[in-house]
Amino acid sequence: MSTYDTLSLAVGDDGVALLTLNRPDALNALNSTMMREFAEALDEATRAEARVLVLTGAGRAFAAGADIAEMRDRTFGDMTDADHLSLWERLAQLRIPTIGAVNGFALGGGCEIAMMCDVLIAGEGASFGQPEIALGIIPGIGGTQRLTRIVGKAQAMDLVLTGRRVDAAEAHRIGLVSRVVSDADVLDEALTAARKIAGFSARAVRAAKECVLRADQTPLSEGLLFERRWFHSLFAFADQTEGMSAFLDKRPARFTDG
Ligand code: CO8
């Protein structure tokens, strides 16, 4: 377990990394120290050869957004010169799957980070929203772009223009989250899913993630070709023979990443 000032990281022998945002007194508001440490922790998880990353928040929030106290006196020059915010994007660039375990508030930048995760598991008491409009700003790390791609224009406009919060049930209905479970079960559910993914062939998992993400970025014909090429490629590896042999032999597969 590595403890930073604003978060902690634990990478288990099972290949699952658990990254916990940890400023509970400020509802895990995302400040510049946390952004720097977040990038360092992602590097650490990569060095430790984590196969799946679970991201959660300590206390009663996943994250209630960017730290408003830190941001209030910033100028345009401060924001653009230091390129404040850019390191958060590192989460979206991870090659391994990421699972957000959302307890409580996921607002503003917190909702945007949640949307960078590949799978989102929310507790019944979770709430999501892009309340930046009420602060005289707009979302800055994907709240107008990822949200629109995930839930469509009608829902995204509603959330971004009114700043209203949606509860976990509504978030599930509009396709913002993958699963809703009881608040007490969120982390366990996420860790169980992470362990399951970590047990599969790493190359197949990487291919699956890359292909799904491609769907947002290419015309259908290109996406289908990309998927087909990956599908063919996986037949180059021993894990394909093992997975299919295990099925036919009626035994669990022993993937070796070979
Ligand atoms: N920034 C700084 N401090 C915060 C934040 C925040 N975003 N959210 C909560 N806190 C602090 C409160 O100031 C309070 O501190 P203190 O105890 O010292 O007064 C403590 O956390 C507890 O909060 P509340 O007392 O307000 O708790 P409530 O249960 O009454 O309310 C809410 C919870 C509804 C979540 C409320 O705190 C709230 O509305 N928070 C702000 C939400 C918000 O507007 N978020 C958007 C911020 S802007 C943004 O995210 C820009 C995104 C683009 C860049 C992203 C880069 C990371």
TrEMBL record:
PANTHER family: ENOYL-COA HYDRATASE, MITOCHONDRIAL (PTHR11941:SF54), ENOYL-COA HYDRATASE-RELATED (PTHR11941). InterPro entries: ClpP/crotonase-like_dom_sf, Enoyl-CoA_hyd/isom_CS, Enoyl-CoA_hydra/iso, Enoyl-CoA_hydra_C. Could possibly oxidize fatty acids using specific components. Pfam families: ECH_1. Keywords: Fatty acid metabolism, Lipid metabolism, Lyase. Belongs to the enoyl-CoA hydratase/isomerase family. It catalyses: a 4-saturated-(3S)-3-hydroxyacyl-CoA = a (3E)-enoyl-CoA + H2O; a (3S)-3-hydroxyacyl-CoA = a (2E)-enoyl-CoA + H2O. This is Enoyl-CoA hydratase-related protein. The lineage of its organism: Bacteria, Bacillati, Actinomycetota, Actinomycetes, Mycobacteriales. CDD domains: crotonase-like.
